[in-house]
């Protein structure tokens, strides 16, 4: 017996965008759009009327924005996963979305590449953020460390901060070694120290940690 499909509520105030996004989702065997909404208020009505596992919300919508709708949906349906789909590559929106209860942030410009993966990640309780968003989270975290807002055990050396930023930006150990004029072995040692200090296993966990620890503020 095959697994049940992931039931999706899709909200965007542009019918053309909804049609395009629906095409991307409905062609996947494990995804199914069960309801559509044209604004945030309608999205909440649809969530009450339909059983959905995941809400995909545009940020800029009339009546209620996607951020306001996300907050209400998180309170109304605690089990519902929420993804923000937006054209805004904007740190403020990103932080607000995560604070509102969203577990992922997908840019419309690359929705055909990222959205399906983001939906599946959300259902696995994994955060989905585009690379620039990961960098923003880490920069925010490092600023808080510098201002003494984080546990002293987590304070990183300037070199560890450099390595951390480069890791978050997706560079390999070899690339980092070339950028910082150090050996690959030294980079690997810094990475190991970083993960140990932060109690993490990999780059994805760093993102999870940033969200869970409230390192993001609107």
TrEMBL record:
SMART domains reported for this sequence: HTH_LUXR (SM00421), REC (SM00448)
GO molecular function per UniProt: DNA binding
SUPFAM superfamilies membership: C-terminal effector domain of the bipartite response regulators (SSF46894), CheY-like (SSF52172)
Cited CDD domains: LuxR_C_like, REC_NarL-like
Domain HTH luxR-type: 149-214
Keywords, sorted A to Z: DNA-binding, Phosphoprotein, Transcription, Transcription regulation
Domain of life: Bacteria
Pfam family membership, one: GerE
Domain Response regulatory: 7-123
Gene3D superfamilies: 3.40.50.2300
4-aspartylphosphate found at: 58
A Gene Ontology BP annotation from the UniProt entry: phosphorelay signal transduction system
Descriptive protein name: DNA-binding response regulator
Organism: Streptomyces parvulus
């Amino acid at each position: 017996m095959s697994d049940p499909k992931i039931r999706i509520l899709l909200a965007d105030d542009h019918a053309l965008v909804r049609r395009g996004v629906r095409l991307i989702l409905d062609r996947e065997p494990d995804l199914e759009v069960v309801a559509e909404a044209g604004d945030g208020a309608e999205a909440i009505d649809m969530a009450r009327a339909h059983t959905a596992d995941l809400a995909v919300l545009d940020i800029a919508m009339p009546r209620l924005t996607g951020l306001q709708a996300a907050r209400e949906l998180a309170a109304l349906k605690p089990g519902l996963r929420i993804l923000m789909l937006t054209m805004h590559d904007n740190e403020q929106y990103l932080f607000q979305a995560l604070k509102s209860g969203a577990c992922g942030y997908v840019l419309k410009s690359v929705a055909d590449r990222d959205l399906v993966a983001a939906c599946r990640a959300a259902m696995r309780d994994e955060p989905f953020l585009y690379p620039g968003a990961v960098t923003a989270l880490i920069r925010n975290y490092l600023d808080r460390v510098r201002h003494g807002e984080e546990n002293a055990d987590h304070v990183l050396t300037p070199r560890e901060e450099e390595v951390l930023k480069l890791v978050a930006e997706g560079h390999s150990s070899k690339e980092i070694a070339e950028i910082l004029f150090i050996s690959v072995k030294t980079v690997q040692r810094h990475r190991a120290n970083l993960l140990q200090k932060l109690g993490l296993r990999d780059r994805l966990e760093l993102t999870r940690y940033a969200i869970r620890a409230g390192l993001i503020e609107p």
